[in-house]
Amino acid sequence: MIQGEVSLKENADVVRLEAGDYLFVPRSRAIVMMGTDSAARLLDIHAPVSHDLPSPATTKALATLKGRVDESAFSVHTAHAAEGRAFDTQTLIDRKMGSESIKAFVSLVHPGSGMGLHVHPFDQFYYVMHGQLSVRLGFDTSRMSEGDIVVFPAGLIHSNSNDGAGPTILLTINVPEVPAGTRGAYSIDLNN
Q1: Omega of the bond prior to 48 within 30 degrees of 0, cis?
Q2: Residue among 115, 117, 118, 130 at smallest CA distance from 164
Q3: Which domain holds residue 135?
Q4: Are residues 161 and 79 in the same domain?
Q5: What are the tens digits of pLDDT across the range 144-177?
Q6: Of 74, 83, 94, 141, which is least surrounded by CB within 10 A?
Q7: Looking at 24, 52, 68, which one is the last position of a domain?
Q8: pLDDT tens per residue, range 107-124
Q9: For residue 147, with 0-12 CB atoms within 10 Å meaning exposed, 13-18 middle and 19 or more buried, which class applies?
Q10: Could you tell me if 84 and 158 are in contact, meaning their C-beta atoms sit under 8 angstroms apart?
């Protein structure tokens, strides 16, 4: 939920979402939106799924699929191509939680930090929730700010940095999530 509040209902199960909340709704769930306030803004993400695989989250109550973005739940991420302090993350959705094809997490990118040039074997999306971020896509550079979204197709060299004075908060989505034990990023050095 980006702004306002909304209630979602499945049979007798009702969940209310406010700004900062998120809800993972697995396939085959009949969810009805109700009680939407006129100022509500909701980011709704759909991902293709394989119908051959059973989803482990199809029988969980809606309330157990709800979460909240919480800075105390963030952990330090210093993986591939990290520059400066890199960023802190909170996983929202992944295979461990029952997602079949996406990994979504919130990143807090500290000033003077980011990720150097790298490439992924999956598509990646950034949605800027707060702050600004400089991004490089191939040989093009741009500046993102709150409400902007950028797509990094699989195999496209990219980087990002927070060269502002305050933190940047991003929603990051990887499609598909790489299998456990598989490398998900490769650093790129254009000087060699």
Answers
A1: no
A2: 130
A3: 71-187
A4: yes
A5: 999 899 999 999 999 999 999 999 999 999 988 8
A6: 141
A7: 68
A8: 899 999 988 899 999 999
A9: exposed
A10: no
92 vs 69, 116, 162, CA distance in Å? 8, 24, 22
Nearest in space to 62 (alpha carbons), one of 140, 9, 3: 9
Q: Give the C-alpha separation, 117 to 154, whole Å.
A: 14
pLDDT at 189: 80
CA distance 86 to 123: 21
Cα 178 from Cα 192, distance rounded (Å) = 28
Q: How many CA atoms lie within 13 A of 190 on its CB side?
A: 9
Q: Is residue 192 one of the residues assigned to a domain? A: no
Do both 91 and 109 map to the same domain?
yes
Residues whose CB falls within 8 Å of the CB of residue 80, separated by 6 or more in sequence, listed in order: 115, 118, 184, 185, 186, 187
The C-alpha atoms of residue 138 and residue 158 are separated, in whole angstroms, by 6
pLDDT in the model for residue 20: 76
Do 75 and 45 lie in one domain? The reply is: no
Q: Measure the CA–CA gap between 150 and 144, rounded to whole angstroms.
A: 8
Per-run averaged pLDDT (10 residues), the chain, 192 residues: 77 83 73 74 64 55 69 70 75 81 88 90 91 93 93 92 92 86 81 71
Claim to verify: residue 63 and residue 75 sit in the same structural domain: no
42 and 113 belong to one structural domain: no
